[in-house]
Specification:
Length: about 150
């Protein structure tokens, strides 16, 4: 039997340094959920299509189901648990931009990152960023309205 290599690493997750043992082939999603108890990122398709597992790595959204945990070492990782009463979270509530809620954390992280990178995005930019996440329960109209409601006007 081949022994899987393990690494003792420090990771910055939601603003806190965490020391953890990871294996070379473990996904970031697995480490976050099963080793650290951060269940906001959800397993959906597990192949990078649906976006339910979206987290921020640095300032950009990444699908944690297809990112190895070792790739995230040295980067700031933000999950939904790391956001606290952000404008986009309030906007999702105010605009009913969810139904069952399973995909909502991934959408919120993606939209938060969008607004961090593009404070005044065009409609086309919003559409492009939202296309990386899939929801089977609700229309994208409410999510789009939530994003538009927090855009900073100059």
């Amino acid at each position: 039997m081949v022994e899987t290599r393990k690494f003792q690493v420090e990771m910055e997750i939601n603003g806190e340094m965490t020391e953890i043992e990871i294996r070379a082939g473990e996904t970031l999603l697995h480490v976050l959920r099963n080793k650290l108890g951060l269940t906001g990122p959800k397993p959906g398709c597990l192949n990078g299509d649906c976006g339910a597992c979206t987290v921020m790595v640095g300032e950009l959204p990444f699908k944690s189901c297809i990112m190895l945990a070792v790739e995230a070492v040295g980067h700031k990782i933000t999950t939904i648990e790391g956001l606290h009463d952000t404008p986009i979270q309030r906007a999702f509530i105010e605009h009913f931009a969810f139904q069952c809620g399973y995909c909502t954390p991934g959408f919120i992280i993606n939209c938060h990152s969008l607004l961090q990178n593009h404070p005044n995005p065009s409609g086309e930019t919003i559409k492009s960023w939202l296309s990386s996440n899939i929801c089977r329960c609700t229309s994208y109209q409410e999510i789009n309205e939530a994003v538009r409601s927090v855009i900073k006007s100059d």
